[in-house]
Amino acid sequence: MNMNTKPYAVGLVRGGRNLLLVALLSAGQATEPAADSGTSIVDLIRGQSVSAVFESFDPTGCIVIDVSLDGAFSFQRQPGTGTFTLNQTGLSVDIFDLCNVNAIMQADGVGNSQSLQISKDATSATLTAEVLMFDQFSLNFTANVSLTFTATSALQKNKSTNVSHGSRMTVVTVIKGEGTDAQAVGTISLTADAAHPAIPNIVPMPSIEGIIQTAENSSITIIRPK
């Protein structure tokens, strides 16, 4: 089936980052209709996320700690298949000795145990999470996240509409979102592993970058009778 797609609007881009939750919101996909009678099918995906980048140094100025974090929640409802949720926090930690040119720790992890709360006006948020991490030696440990996000710029909104036509169907997809730059403060603590001691807080300073954003993708498939 040949589908002709016509975009009607382009989402706003701020600082090279699209404020829509691209990773969470997938545009509706048209499939060949099976029913002979006129039918309308509605798919809905809602999502929200926060992200932050931290950098700090020890008192000597030799040890630098770089941390990046993304916390996201999405809800999807599809006819006939029920509802699905995605609730994840991704965390990356790099600890480097600049004076001796030595990587002390390089670790990444994804956790499914989190609580993400974003205010209705998307100007503040809180994230608590437990993330299983793996370092450069493949040793695992736990990171506990407790952060508060506060908006530092005006809220930006965007909206885009996409219409696709097939032989017996029309799919209308509307994506709308809003987001703002933000600053995160709080704690990210690391438990000890065989190669590293426990660290009570690897983010003693506010984040140098941050974002709060929400988005919604609604797709309506109109099937025309033969």
Topology of this protein?
Layout: E1 4-7, E2 13-14, E3 17-18, E4 39-57, E5 63-78, E6 82-97, E7 102-118, E8 124-134, E9 140-151, E10 156-165, E11 169-190, E12 209-223
Antiparallel strand pairs: 1-10, 2-3, 4-5, 4-12, 5-6, 6-7, 7-8, 8-9, 9-11, 10-11, 11-12
Structure explained in plain terms:
By secondary structure, the protein is mainly β. The chain has one domain (4-223). Helix content is 0%, strand content 65%. It has strands spanning 4-7, 13-14, 17-18, 39-57, 63-78, 82-97, 102-118, 124-134, 140-151, 156-165, 169-190, 209-223. Strands 4-5-6-7-8-9-11-12 form an eight-stranded antiparallel beta barrel. A two-stranded antiparallel sheet has the order 2-3. A hairpin with a 5-residue loop joins strand 4 and strand 5 (63-78). Mean pLDDT is 80; it is low at 1-37.
Radius of gyration: 22 Å
Order of helices and strands: EEEEEEEEEEEE
What is the helix fraction of residues, given as a range?
Answer: under 10%
Categorize the overall geometry. Answer: elongated
How much is the average pLDDT? 80
What's the count of strands? 12
